[in-house]
Amino acid sequence: MAEAKEIRGFVIKQQQLGEADILLTFFSQEQGKTRMVIKAAKRVTSKLQSALQPYYLSQVSLVGKGELQNVISSQVLESYAGVLQTEIGMRLVSVVQEFLYRALPDEQVNTQLFNLVLEFYKLLNNHQDLDFSQGQALVVQFYSLALLAIGLNPESNLVILEEPKEVFLSNQEGGFAIQRRSVSDIALPTEAYKEYLKLSKQPMVINVLDNQELLTAILGFVNYQLERKFIAGEYFLT
Questions:
Q1: Which helix (H) or strand (E) holds 23?
Q2: What is the dihedral of CA 176, 179, 183, 189, to 10 degrees?
Q3: Average pLDDT for consecutive 10-residue bins of the chain (238 residues)?
Q4: Which residues contact 196 (CB under 8 A, 6 or more apart)?
């Protein structure tokens, strides 16, 4: 029998596969985004699925070759079930899961992004009284730092000699500028740019979002740069 490989990470998505199996998409420190199969997961005797929930940091053992390996054991390393206590927490987890599922290629290790997700889950678990504005700020901060981890963050090294009333975020040019470079550039108050600079730094902390235009602009930037629609963060626009 082939030697089992152990990886640790988070469940991103579960899908039915046949009558009894589950196709699992998993984000791990060791392999990045990985797809795996839990055989006979729907049977009452299966104990594998219980340790593989989206709010757990789990360790799984895998066997097999090819794109789809089989899960033969799983265990919970850390529970972040506190994220389920509020709708804000659950919506923020959805933002993370959607980004990992839609933005990442398979089997590409990204330690920086893994550590960010781990930090984000810990923060949510420890702060179960988040209000809507704090949730908005965390969305901006997560997207900004996640884009940085995959090399697509907006360029923000502006040299401002005399503070303008507004700056421009260009999806096409991939960053901020003090002058409009395209008709599609988004004008933002200078205060929103300053808020972005504050939120795009680690460690992650609880803030409130003072400029909702910033959230709208960052969501548009994410959609443009990754060439697909990300909808989980739109909840925080309402």
A1: strand 21-28
A2: 60
A3: 85 86 93 89 59 88 85 92 92 97 95 96 94 96 95 77 80 89 91 92 89 95 95 93
A4: 140, 144, 154, 156, 176, 214, 218
Buried b / exposed e along 37-56 (16+ C-beta atoms within 10 A): bbeebeeeeeebbebbbbbb
d(CA 83, CA 173): 36
Q: Note the pTM of the prediction, 2 decimals.
A: 0.91
Map residue 22 onto helix, strand or coil: strand
**Contact in structure between 112 and 149 (CB atoms under 8 Å):** yes
Question: Using alpha carbons only, what angle is made at residue 227 by residues 142 and 235, rounded to the nearest 5 degrees?
Answer: 45
Rounded Cα–Cα distance for residues 214 and 199 (Å): 11
Could you identify the residue written with the tokens 């090399």? 151
Question: Can you read off the two tokens belonging to residue 201?
Answer: 């730094």
How many C-beta neighbours within 10 Å does residue 209 have? 22
* 22 touches 46 (CB < 8 A): no
- Which residue type does 118 have? L
Whose structure tokens read 């550590």?
115
Closest CA to 79 of 28, 27, 125, 32: 125
Residue 200 CB: number of other CB atoms within 10 A?
A: 18
- Decide the pairing of beta strands 186-189 and 166-170: antiparallel
